[in-house]
Specification:
By secondary structure, the protein is mostly beta strands. The chain is about 5% helix and about 35% strand. The protein is globular, with a radius of gyration of 23 Å.
Length: about 450
């Protein structure tokens, strides 16, 4: 008689407790705009979220400073003339992010080194409004809905808009180098593969298209990727395997697994539930764990990928809460408590209770670094420049050890950008003019001609 075999996994017992109030960010009014965005994005140091109000205000919070935001007192970022719809942090610079707005523009921002919206006691700290962007990207004709930074190439950004285009940007030169103009309808999601060699976007027409981002050519199309009308989200598991989330004809939310070498039909379909909200898949490529979040519900489901049928295996009951989530994002691995065995952290946006950090921990008795659950992860270093990538260079992401003894979590980037805002350049110019006048006066005083 054969025994029942239980599938083994290092992450089977991962757990997440409901965060305490003092661990959350509260007292701010979230923007009321709706769409397919995640509402919040994070680097290893900060997070950004759109607020209510004129000028497209954004709150940029520090991950190490939870607390209460004080409206009219705490500093904000503001520079758009319309509401901010999406943000994305530069994966190679934890202080830089891009914002997309209803005003059709994309702005690139740098967080000042002394940025403190809350003090050490979690109270709102007075500060000045930050209005000076580093660069403006202007080419879309209608509101810009989604942004995605390139995973390996420096200063390379992908955007999509209600003008039915997908554009690739050379951020440093503020130029759109590629444009996909034959998009038939509004884009639900747009993603890069792990190297940034290809990109994919899902559309309201229920089809998924894979493009060559250097030329803008559509290389393949998966028709009717999900039969239902819910928003379709995409995740590259590997360069040849993809997850999509959507709904069936009967409105059952589902995950589909696709072999990109043969897209005639999915190799597996996993039914989830019949809830109404769209799903947000958050993929951890280091652990092969998929965190499945849903807009409007309080459950985060965990699935582990394995290269055998049915490819995704449910780990446990995940995280359950009575507080529904409006949006979710994942904090980069280098921003986690590695020695505390924190393998993932998700920021959950709620409608009236602020932002909750959901910390997923693997229980271990030892205090030593756990190398089996912390393989090397993406480093804040580009593998190549935008020009090199656009010229044909193909490289995997640069990785770093997660062991703090090797530099691990301390290896957080400072500002490495060559950008300067208009205000900072103007200030430098005025200082230079003043110095020239002083030198001219000194030469004249000493009778020296020039």
């Amino acid at each position: 008689m054969s025994g029942f075999k239980i599938r083994t996994s290092k992450y089977r017992h991962v757990f997440c407790d409901q965060p305490k109030n003092e661990e959350c960010w509260t007292e701010f009014r979230i923007s009321t705009v709706t769409g397919d965005q995640q509402y919040v994005k994070a680097s290893a140091k900060y997070f950004a979220i759109g607020l209510q109000g004129g000028g497209g205000p954004m709150m940029v919070g520090r991950l190490d400073r939870p607390g209460r935001f004080t409206s009219g007192v705490s500093p904000i970022f503001s520079g758009h003339s319309g509401a901010v719809l999406d943000m994305d942090w530069n994966p190679h610079n934890d202080d830089m992010f891009a914002s997309a707005s209803e005003d059709t523009n994309i702005k690139i921002w740098q967080v000042p080194e002394d940025w403190e919206p809350t003090d050490e006691n979690g109270e709102g700290k007075p500060g000045e409004e930050h209005k000076d962007s580093l660069a403006d990207l202007e080419a879309h004709r209608k509101k810009v809905t989604l942004l995605r930074y390139h995973p390996t190439a420096g200063n390379t950004l992908m955007s999509t808009s209600a003008d039915y285009t997908v554009k690739i940007w050379d951020v440093e030169n503020t130029t759109a180098v590629t444009s996909v103009d034959d998009v038939p309808n509004l884009v639900h999601d747009v993603v890069w593969d792990s190297k940034g060699e290809s990109a994919a976007f899902s559309c309201k027409d229920k089809n998924l298209r894979i493009i060559d981002p250097r030329t803008g050519a559509i290389s393949s199309t998966i028709e009717t990727v999900h039969e239902g009308s819910k928003s379709v989200k995409i995740t590259y598991a590997t360069d040849s395997l993809m997850f999509t989330t959507g709904a069936s004809k009967q409105s059952t939310r589902e995950i589909r697994v696709w072999d990109l070498k043969n897209t005639s039909k999915p190799i597996h379909t996993e039914n989830v539930d019949t809830a109404a909200g769209a799903m947000i898949p958050l993929w951890d490529p280091d652990t092969n764990v998929l965190f499945l979040c849903g807009k409007g519900d309080g459950i985060v489901r965990l699935y582990e990928y394995e290269n055998k049928s049915p490819y995704i295996f449910k780990l446990n009951d995940g995280f359950r809460s009575n507080t529904p989530g409006k949006g979710y994002c994942m904090v980069p691995k280098r921003g986690l408590d590695i020695m505390g065995c924190e393998t993932a952290r998700i920021l959950k946006v709620t409608s009236g209770q602020g932002i909750h950090p959901l910390t997923f921990t693997v229980p271990r008795k030892s205090d030593a670094f756990q190398d089996d659950i912390f393989p090397e992860s993406a480093a804040p270093t580009p593998a190549h420049s935008h020009a090199e990538w656009f010229g044909g260079s193909a490289k995997s992401p640069v990785t770093m050890s997660m062991n703090p003894k090797d530099g691990g979590t301390a290896k957080i980037t400072k500002s490495k950008t060559s950008f300067k805002s208009v205000a900072s350049v103007s200030k430098e110019l005025e200082a230079a003019k003043k110095r020239i006048s002083e030198l001219e006066a000194l030469l004249k005083k000493n009778g020296i001609s020039y």
